[in-house]
Write a structure and sequence with these properties.
Helix content: 40-55%
CATH superfamily of the largest domain: Enolase-like C-terminal domain
Strand content: 5-15%
Shape: globular
Number of strands: 12
Order of helices and strands: EEEHHHHHHHHEHEHEHEHEHEHHEEEHH
Number of domains: 2
Distance between the termini: 49 Å
Radius of gyration: 21 Å
């Protein structure tokens, strides 16, 4: 039930904090394009004068340098947010999202892409966190219990109607309505399937890869992922090691993190094909729709997956129209927040393509689980061939961290988007003056 607010309650502040974790020290997160990442959050807090103690929390994820640029972009949105009615924002998140995305001067910096769009997504996600907390529900359930009409009202159909109309979106959502209660029950009982990238970071030794892969199997995962793309000789050896460790029939995805040109991607994947990779992720530039289509035609039955660096719903639309992907990978912090991800989930459902989100990072697992669970409850109605990425680090910094049991994400129970960080973590890892970073000067 929604909190009772005075009608005059307003958003009083949009705080943004630069929080960085020195993950480069142990090569956690290392890949062919990001050899030494420091997982970082441009962390957002929406504050109000409602007197109920509720705040909205979210973040934009970066890999270190540049987090200050991302934080500055979020701060630039404050004049568009501070002073707004809490009740009106939470009651109409579709209009709130569009008001930020369509600002005629700020959108020039995109439009709807890059740092400014990620900033918009962080603020929009924080508003969803606040609205769900007011409703007393986790975001996945807050969304999953909306009517089809309410959900369609969240989506900006500009530039989508040649592929997905509001009427088609309503039809998709109405078809899924009848089974919602059963699927909510399944999530509460079993959770949502996960796969793990924990064994596969490029900086790990073969021994560490094999040990972590064995642990993944023992922990109930049915898929792991390896980073590839720096050295073909090394990748063949690492794939062989992984396959020998997990056995035949166990899914091993690979991820090039955009390292290759189109022909390089084709040649590399043909060399790895004897080890039965399940998908190749980000084989080339995320903007190269025709390149992805060419790779997909050439490397089948290996699937092509992409999405974590795709800027907006329009590029997803074109990837689907061009038959360029087998797997859509949404990201909770790359596009314009929950609203745009609803649009992408509806597009994927229209084209019959499974969604397997990108996560890892810091806070991405926490946030994106809500989107996949909502998709299962109210959009696609299925978990067949669908998994959420999981990486086992940095969850301890969150008030409501992800919970994994038997290779499944357990459904979040606390209200909100699960993005709220512990104050002590924010203080300790604040950049550049927090104790962790001050000690490194």
């Amino acid at each position: 039930m929604s909190s009772i607010l005075p009608s005059s309650a307003r958003i009083t502040a949009l705080d943004v904090l630069d929080v960085r974790f020195p993950t480069s020290e142990h090569l956690d997160g290392s890949d062919a394009m990001n050899p030494e990442p420091d997982y970082s959050a441009a962390y957002v807090v929406l504050r109000t004068d409602a007197g109920d103690g509720l705040e909205g929390h979210a973040l934009a994820f970066t890999t270190g340098r540049g987090n200050d640029v991302q934080a500055a972009a979020i701060a630039a949105l404050a004049p568009h947010v501070v002073g707004l009615s809490v009740e009106e924002v939470c009651a109409d998140l579709g209009s709130f999202s569009r008001s930020l995305v369509h600002d005629p001067q700020l959108r020039w910096l995109g439009p709807e892409k890059g740092v400014i769009h990620m900033a918009t997504g962080a603020v929009v996600n924080a508003a969803w966190d606040l609205a769900a907390k007011r409703a007393g529900k986790p975001v996945w359930r807050f969304l999953g219990e909306m009517s089809p009409e309410e959900l369609v009202a969240q989506v900006d159909f500009r530039w989508l109607s040649d592929a997905l109309t509001p009427e088609e979106a309503l039809d998709i959502l109405r078809r899924a309505e009848s089974g919602r209660a059963l699927r909510i029950g399944h999530l509460l009982d079993k959770g949502y399937p996960a796969y793990t990238t924990t064994p596969g970071w490029l900086g790990y030794s073969d021994e560490k890869l094999a040990r972590l892969a064995r642990e993944a199997v023992a922990d109930g995962f049915t898929q792991i992922k390896l980073k590839v793309g720096a050295s073909l000789e090394d990748d063949i050896r690492r794939m062989r090691t992984a396959r020998e460790t997990v056995g035949e029939g166990f899914r091993i995805a690979v991820d090039a993190n955009q390292r290759w040109d189109v022909q390089d991607a084709i040649d590399w994947m043909r060399a790895l094909a004897p080890y039965d990779p399940y998908w190749i992720e980000e084989p080339t530039s995320p903007d190269d729709i025709l390149g992805h289509a060419a790779v997909r035609r050439a490397v089948g039955p290996i699937k092509v997956a992409t999405g974590e660096h795709i800027a907006n719903r329009v590029v997803f639309k074109q990837l689907l129209q061009a038959g360029a992907v087998d797997i859509v990978q949404i990201d909770s912090a790359r596009v314009g927040g929950v609203n745009e991800n609803i649009a992408i989930l509806l597009l994927a459902a229209k084209f019959g393509i499974p969604v397997c989100p990108h996560a890892g990072g810091v806070g991405l697992c926490e946030m994106v689980q809500h989107l996949s669970m909502f998709d299962y409850v109210a959009v696609s109605g299925t978990i067949e061939d669908r998994v959420i990425e999981y990486v086992d680090h940095l969850h301890e910094h969150f008030v409501d961290p992800v919970r994994i049991t038997d290779g499944h994400y357990l459904a979040p129970a606390l209200p909100g988007l699960s993005a709220q960080m512990h104050p002590d973590s924010v203080k300790e890892y604040a950049y550049p003056d927090g104790p962790v970073w001050a000690a490194r000067v």
